[in-house]
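User: Can you help me understand a structure? I only have the sequence.
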Amino acid sequence: MSTVQLSSTQKRILSSLVNLAEGDERAVRGRDIAEAVDRNPGTIRNRMQSLRALQLVEGVPGPKGGYRPTRQAYETLDVDRLEEAAAVPLEREGEPVPDATVSEIDFTSVHDPERCRAEVVVRGPIGAFGIGDAVTVGPTPSADLRVSGVVETADIGENVLLIDVASIRTEPDD
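Assistant: Let's start by predicting it. Here is the structure, written out as tokens:
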């Protein structure tokens, strides 16, 4: 991982940029980032100057311009950049979450006889998630794993949902 130290605001903005840029060749507009992090577009422009100085972001001028994360941005956030990553769907309250895919599922308390928790790392917007929302992750590409539960915490800066797992199942082979 890179040695660049970011403020929490810089990290949140950079994480949002990386998530919004995932799988898209076009530059991400500042107002899209502002909406994702619930900030003013002017604030985003100001923060992007410091991220450009750190060589984490490149600016794209013009009417279709915006921002793109650099390779160093992915390294700084310790995020793998996969060119051909399989999509792992995410549902909130039974509805698919557009532009979101799950990149990791970490079971954090499988030894607890009372409950099981999972940290779900999402690529894409999670700002709409709130405590108590029903979520379903999957199926995963290789094991057809589906995890369902209820959101306990939504960490927008890290793009992580902590869920109280209600069920884990796999689809039977045909």
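Now, to help you interpret it: The mean pLDDT is 84. The longest helix spans residues 8-21. Let me know which part you'd like to focus on.
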